[in-house]
Amino acid sequence: MRLRKEKILWNALLGTSVYLLDSLRNRLSEGVDDLTDRARDTYGVTSRRVSRAADVIRGEDHSVLGTAGALLLGVGVGVGLGLLLAPASGEETRGNISNKVHECASLVPTVRKSGTFAGLIAHLSVWVGHSCPTFFRIS
Fold first, then answer.
1. CA separation for the pair 59, 74 (Å, rounded)
2. Which positions of the chain have pLDDT values less than 50?
3. DSSP notation for 32-85
4. Residue 117's pLDDT is what?
5. Which of 15, 83, 106, 116 is the most core-located residue (most Cβ within 10 A)?
6. What is the pLDDT of residue 111?
7. Looking only at Cα atoms, what is the longest distance across the chain?
8. What letter does residue 116 receive in the DSSP assignment?
9. Distance CA 63, CA 77 (A)
10. pTM score of the predicted model
11. Which regions of the chain does DSSP assign to beta strands (E)?
12. What is the pLDDT of residue 25?
């Protein structure tokens, strides 16, 4: 009688442990699948970022819109700070800006004749270096 009760107890313990281990195995496999998916996604994102960084370093980055946007943003911030921190009065500053716009407009025909981006940069560097007032001059 005693052996029979022990046998029933052992069967119940073994059955419970098998059930618990089976449910633990299911939860672990789901966790491993989630972990695998996250690792795969992270690898994909990292791979794209490293590839883009390598393209930028090699000079093969062709995101002209992003570069142009950054340039325009930088120019806008620079002009805004220049206007805020300019030592001249507002009327004098507006007059200087108007004069510079007219000078720049007079450069357009000469830049058109050169027809190249390098010609544009050469004309602008001469204009910025020599004909600008001191608060516009790049030092």
1. 21
2. 131-139
3. HHHHHHHHHHHHHHHHHHHHHHHHHHHT----HHHHHHHHHHHHHHHHHHHHHH
4. 60
5. 83
6. 58
7. 114
8. S
9. 21
10. 0.30
11. none
12. 79
